[in-house]
Amino acid sequence: MKQATRLDGDYDYIIVGAGTAGCVLANRLTEDPDTRVLLLEAGKSDSYHWVHIPVGYLYCIGNPRTDWMMKTAPEPGLNGRSLVYPRGKVLGGCSSVNGMIYMRGQAADYDHWRQMGNTGWGWDDVLPYFLKSEDHHGGDTDMHRRGGEWKVQKQRLSWDILNAVQEGAKEFGIEPRDDFNNGNNEGSGFFEVNQKNGVRWNTAKAFLRPAMNRPNLRVMTEATTDRLILEGKSVHGVRFRHKGQLLKAFAGHEVLLAAGAINSPKILELSGIGRGDVLNARGIDLLHECNGVGENLQDHLQIRTVYKVKNAKTLNTMANSILGKARIALQYGLTQSGPMSMAPSQFGMFTKSNPALETPDLEYHVQPLSTDKLGDPLHPFPAITVSVCNLRPESIGSSHIQSRDLDQQPDIRLNYLSAERDRSVAVKSVQQTRRIMTAKALEPYQPQEILPGPTVQDEPDLVNAIGDIATTIFHPVGTCRMGQDDMAVVDPQLRVVGLTGLRVVDASIMPKIVSGNTASPVIMIAEKAADLIRKSRVKLV
């Protein structure tokens, strides 16, 4: 690759990553016509049909057109298994390939962030930013807004078996609720989704498309950031690859790193920012020591229990023939409804593994289908999957570069189930699932446990079986965490500690994972970051 040349143009801000956060930043910062922004995305346009058809996530994950194609290191807690670890490589990032579930988390999550020293990040502080971009089907209320960019709608299909699960859960004290997003998500209900009339609504559509007509925004796809350009303790620009060229671009104000919880620490480390021992071992000169880079990796591990059922319509039986698939396709083509409009999970429950807890620590995703693992063929018999995850894992991992090679994925280690409490919660969650499936409301469907299997009862055996069936729910966060201690990577203004001209704006800044799905919290983070950036705009020397 030839010598790096300067990209034409003079920019105020360079955003690295046109994903969930980057698209929001690009929109908000270019609202000021005097602010010039360059947005760099390693992936391609989202003009790919499977991005927009909701069930298309099955064809986007594991597809190099839309996925970084990463894998975790072998996980001891998962009996040595290495998991596929999808990350969106496309305009819209993970919002183009995720499960489309609209979820804010719990008020207590953000109050805890504030208690950790992150002033301005409590529930009352962040709620206005959730509301700012929301376009909720229910209109304006105390907790929701209409008219924003981020569409929130009801799903366009229903399943009798899922209604029965809700009734069954009620027998065990899990009450139905209308809204998972008012700060307290305890109870059961059907997930709201980020769709418009049965079509995926990603941040590229919501935020980037309207901004691309502005003359002060330049968007470059297939532009993979190689490293940040530092002068002393100031970041002035980026070096990146674009269609065989090595280019440089410079920012008069700030570089905004929005590449996600795996790629943001990767870019920092390739730039000489991180732990000295990690960088020295990879032959990279340490330019700025920041020991928290790549540490504090957190994720939600879901345990996929499967129950065979009778007398029920499930996707397994609807899609088990060419005729069935044709009917499903026709229904979607005519009405944008039915199974092809499905989010991966339709029905959810939030409850406690221990009644003494103040707020729920378990989230269920219940699906009218079953497979051996995501992407595998559906089972040839009617069945449902009752996945459950620990919302507050104590098992903490890391993500670090393995070499100076830009094309080599980081070493991703989640350390799932390494904490004793996580193993205990996992066992309790399976036991709770089994109790719910004995409910009277479910008797007509005669649920029969397939995974992990009814013979697996003792705690050691259950832990081992869980290691065989548990998998990621694709919520990595925390690797550039916000705080005010020695391991913090960014301060509460999201500025990288000890440097000027650089902020991180994505899921990596979360000090603790939120109690729910992560896409909409990332949009909130970007909304708040845009305000912080505009209020502190100072020209670098």
Notable characteristics:
541 residues, alpha/beta, seven-stranded antiparallel β-sheet, Cholesterol Oxidase, domain 2, 21% strand, 2 domains, 25 strands, FAD/NAD(P)-binding domain
Query: How large, in whole angstroms, is the Cα Rg?
Result: 23 Å
CA-to-CA gap between the ends? 31 Å
Indicate the structural class: alpha/beta
Could you tell me the strand content as a percent range?
A: 15-25%
Shape assignment: globular
Number of domains: 2
Specify the CATH architecture of the largest domain. 3-Layer(bba) Sandwich
How many DSSP-defined strands? 25
Look at the structure and give the mean pLDDT: 96
Count of helical stretches:
14
**CATH domain class of the largest domain:** Alpha Beta
In helices, the fraction of residues equals 25-40%
Biggest sheet layout: 8 strands, mixed
CATH superfamily of the largest domain: FAD/NAD(P)-binding domain
The CATH topology of the largest domain: FAD/NAD(P)-binding domain
Verbal overview:
This protein is α/β, with parallel strands linked by helices and 541 residues long. It has 2 domains: 1-73 and 83-120 and 194-264 and 476-534, FAD/NAD(P)-binding domain, CATH 3.50.50; 156-190 and 301-390 and 415-475, Cholesterol Oxidase, domain 2. Helices cover 26% and strands 21% of the residues. The chain contains 14 helices and 25 strands. The strands form 7 sheets. Strands 1, 2, 3, 11, 12, 13, 14 and 25 form an 8-stranded mixed beta sheet that branches. Strands 8, 17, 18, 19, 20, 23 and 24 form a 7-stranded antiparallel beta sheet that branches. It is globular. The chain starts with a strand and ends in a 6-residue tail after the last helix. The mean pLDDT is 96.
